[in-house]
Design a protein that fits this description.
Layout: H1 3-15, E1 19-24, H2 30-36, E2 48-53, E3 59-63, E4 76-80, H3 83-93, E5 99-102, H4 118-125, E6 130-133, H5 135-143, H6 147-176, H7 183-196, E7 199-200, E8 206-209, E9 233-242, E10 250-257, H8 264-289, H9 296-309, E11 323-324, E12 350-354, E13 357-359, E14 364-366, E15 369-373, E16 378-380, E17 389-390
Length: 394
């Protein structure tokens, strides 16, 4: 029995489950392969199941056509061929169990772990077994950072923060020289810098001017790109990770004004967003310091309640933050009580963004930092914006 299996069994037992049932077909569940540290010999064209019980030896169920699919994993493997033997084999695999965790989320509240189809959940339940969500187990095995991943994140943060500063300076230089620049041009300036600094990103970045910044997921295209001019408000959201195996992302949003002083209305909204951000940060840091249990929705409440007090609740249209990992949106707890009610615990060795935003008709403001929760303290891992960037001075 490998150390990983023993670690999984300890976690399954601590959560009160009789076992953790993994299932896949055509690599629909990438979490299963990462958590099991398992690479199949070929694309599975038939369903396979792998059960890790809280106690005892793990065991699997494979199709006769792909009988060696799970050979890399320990334990005996049952074999099925027909639909009848499939059902009988699954019943044998699960015999004696009352509760299993699966990559399932009630009401699809946490879509990041909702990898198992409803029919399979119904099938397992037909054997009299309670199916529970593996969301907390997934977080424990998928979302925690190693020391090396933390160092990769911190280094990515140093490079990304430097590129963001360069981007704002580049806008200023172009305007001061009387040259035209645009959202699209600055996006490519950032992407070229990523390539130079050996940073990877899955898409983006966001460079949004004036009312485009009121769209949280706006990305410039050649057709939509706006020119950036004196007097414009600019939002830049950029995320990237080192070009190394297992590296995790760094994700940051800053805003700036192309002039000596942003209008009062923008400054007021920025100050509200900054305070909402800082209240969420303080809540996390205080809870970790006091060793108090804290759940994702509570962090969202800390930011959202303040914005609500300022009469702008309807203009904060997304969650306060998301888990960060090898994917920019990771598999850990999200800071969310809007899009979902995320009750997952915030556990040590995990990282996430805190990024409240207010989006009005003519402009939007978002301020994003990353937080890493250690065993005894939580820290913001990069630079923290305290005032809008003055992009262009008179």
């Amino acid at each position: 029995m490998t150390a990983r299996i023993a670690e999984i069994q300890a976690a399954v037992s601590a959560e009160g489950f009789d076992g953790w049932l993994f299932m896949d077909h055509h690599r629909r569940d990438p979490l299963a392969y990462r958590i099991l540290n398992f690479e199949p010999p070929r694309i599975p064209t038939r369903r396979w199941y792998y059960l890790i019980p809280a106690k005892g030896e793990p065991r699997g169920l494979v199709h006769r056509v792909e009988a060696t699919m799970l050979d890399a994993l320990p334990g005996d493997k049952l074999v099925y061929s027909s639909w009848r033997s499939h059902r009988e084999g699954l019943a044998r695999l699960l015999a004696g169990l009352r509760t299993v965790a699966m990559q399932y989320s009630p009401d699809c509240a946490i879509p990041y772990v909702a990898m198992v189809d409803a029919g399979t959940v119904e099938l397992v339940r037909s054997f009299g077994i309670q199916v529970s969500s593996s969301a907390d187990l997934v977080q424990y095995f998928e979302a925690r950072w190693t020391d090396e991943q933390l160092e990769c994140h911190l280094e990515a943060g140093r490079r990304v923060d430097a590129i963001r500063r360069e981007a704002f300076r580049h806008i200023a230089a172009e305007l001061q020289a009387g040259r035209r620049t645009s959202e699209w041009a600055i996006k490519h300036f950032i992407l070229e810098a990523f390539q130079r600094e050996r940073l990877l990103t899955d898409h983006g970045p966001i460079v949004a001017v004036n009312d485009n910044s009121a769209n949280p997921h706006y990305e410039p295209s050649p057709e939509s790109s706006r020119e950036i001019r004196s007097g414009d408000w600019v939002l830049i959201d950029l995320w990237a990770k080192l070009d190394r195996p297992e590296a995790v992302y760094y994700d940051s949003t800053w805003v700036g004004y192309c002039g000596a002083q942003a209008p009062w209305e923008i400054i007021r909204v920025f100050d509200i967003v900054r305070e909402a951000r800082d209240r969420a940060i303080r809540l996390v840091q205080d809870a970790v310091r006091r060793r108090q249990t804290l759940r994702g929705f509570e962090v969202d409440d800390a930011a959202r309640d303040y914005i609500r007090e300022q009469g702008l609740a309807e203009r904060f249209i997304h969650r306060t933050g998301h888990s960060i990992g090898r994917d920019v949106h990771g598999a850990g707890a999200n800071m969310d009580n809007l899009e979902t009610h995320d009750e997952r615990r915030i556990i040590p060795r995990t990282g996430f963004s805190i990024e409240p935003g207010i989006y009005l008709d003519k402009f939007g403001v978002r301020s994003e930092v990353n937080v890493f929760v250690g065993d005894e303290e939580a820290v913001v891992t990069g630079e923290i914006q305290q005032a809008p960037v003055t992009i262009l001075r008179p």
